Amino acid sequence: MVDRLSSVEALTGIAAEWDLLARQIAPRTLFTSAAWIIPWWKHFSRCRQMLFHDEFFCHVVRGDGGRLVAVAPLMRTSAPGIGPPVVRMLQFFGVDPALTEIRGVICRPEDQAPVVEALVKHFLARRSEWDVFRWAGLHHPVDTYGTPGLPCAFLARGELPDYVVELPGSWEDLRLKVSSNMRKNLRKAYEFLEREGLTFTLRVTERPDGVAAAMARFLALHAARAEAADLIFHPNKFVRPNVRTFLADYLQGAAERGELRIFELEIGGAVVASRLAFLLGSDLYMYFAGYDPAWKTYSVMTVLMAEMIKWAFAHGVERVNLSTGHDQSKVRWKPREVLFRNAVQVSPTMRARAVFGAFLAYEALSPVRVKAEALSPARIKAAVAGRVRDGHGSPGIEATWP
After folding, report:
1. Which of 182-220 are b and which e, b meaning 16 or more Cβ less than 10 Å from the residue's Cβ?
2. Which of 47, 91, 195, 208 gives 255 a disulfide partner, CB atoms 3.0 to 4.6 angstroms apart?
């Protein structure tokens, strides 16, 4: 049975049973929790803005005896946000500049196919209420969704890889599992510090009273890394005030729940690298990082990541999630790849077919929008000149959905 929730208060009302459901999801992430989803709506929903208006449109799927099977944290986005809408999109919470790495239906992986089928049936019965459904976080190939004769097929819109390291018996077992080149890089990173007479300390912040100071150090290092014009481009994800406010609130709450771990590498009394992480049951989720570019030749992020994994072994962690997005710094640990797929459906109505061209234009323009506030003047100049490149060899300008 699919039910629509009337308000964010109704969503808050199911938080307890929702958290029980979230603990059954693998791999574990922070993005499936009520603690993430509910504040996200409060911080990032857009009300009657010029370009967009977001309407609360959350649904739940319940099984036998009223058991909560799935939460669909949806919003109906109208474009433009003022006046009659041209396009009405159903999309999941998490359309933000950087923070939410994985979006979609919140349910156990084995339940996703029947949950999606139930949601499709529900929304087809209400086809006049929407034009385009933007699916995200699908576990199976897009062409496997939908039943024969479905009047609106799933149209593929890319994939997002997530990388998970299943920890073996010991650090030495993991070290032997990676490539010989990776073992060499690890050895050299430690030897370089030792040869220079430098000793490091791993600091781990988890108590609520230490969050503000550790977050300030993290933000400074993250910004410093983003400003470095001679390195592969990584934008500053935390430029916007509402993003920083959301992050501060979430980190404080995570510390109070016992989930937060802010790992810092300290050398000579100064923190030179920092990474946010979250301990979710027996999973450690690695989130954003930052480091002082002055220490780049010492491979301080490699050392920090290795020390984090050693910490995970020492504290009984079973798997480490290296987070989403293809990156050599992740795949060299020989992780298991988990694919999350995106798709769109077009409502089988004359109106939706007529406005689908407008949606395609919106979809085509979105990837080339420049987040200028994430770029320093030096970065913008270098990007225009073609000197700054991202990890895929493209000009270093971030693309994002509005």
Report:
1. beeebeebbeebeeeeeebeeebbbebeebeebbebbbe
2. 208
Give the residue from 18, 213, 31, 234 showing the smallest Cα distance to 136: 31
Is the domain defined by 2-161+339-368 classed in CATH 3.40.630.30? Answer: yes
Q: What pLDDT band is residue 392 in, cutting at 50, 70 and 90? A: very low
Q: Can you give the pTM of this predicted structure? A: 0.90
- What are the extents of the domains in the chain? 2-161+339-368, 168-317
Common-topology check for domains 2-161+339-368 and 168-317: yes
189-195 contacts, C-beta under 8 A, 24 or more apart: 189/298, 189/299, 189/302, 189/303, 189/306, 190/303, 192/297, 192/298, 192/299, 193/267, 193/298, 193/303
For 234-282, what is each residue's pLDDT tens digit?
889 999 999 999 999 999 999 999 999 999 999 999 999 999 999 999 9
CATH level 2 (architecture), domain 168-317: 3-Layer(aba) Sandwich (3.40)
HEC string for the chain = CEEECCCHHHHHHCHHHHHHHHCCCCCCCHHHCHHHHHHHHHHHCCCCCCCCEEEECCEEEECHHHCEEEEECEEEEEECCCCCCCEEEEEECCCCCCCCCCCCCECCHHHHHHHHHHHHHHHHCCHHHCCEEEEEEECCCHHHCCCCCCCCCCEEEEEEEEEEEECCCCHHHHHHHCCHHHHHHHHHHHHHHHHCCCCEEEEEECCHHHHHHHHHHHHHHHHHHHHCCCCCCCCCCCCCHHHHHHHHHHHHHHHHCCCEEEEEEEECCEEEEEEEEEEECCEEEEEEEEECHHHHHHCHHHHHHHHHHHHHHHCCCCEEEEEECCCHHHHCCCCEEEEEEEEEEECCCHHHHHHHHHHHHHHHHHHHCCCHHHCCHHHHHHHHHCCCECCCCCECCCCCCC
The predicted-structure confidence for 213-242, as pLDDT tens digits, reads as follows: 999 999 999 999 999 877 788 889 999 999
Residues in the chain: 402
- Cβ proximity of 161 and 339 under 8 Å: yes
CB atoms within 10 A of CB 295: 19
Q: What is the residue whose two structure tokens read 């990676």?
A: 178
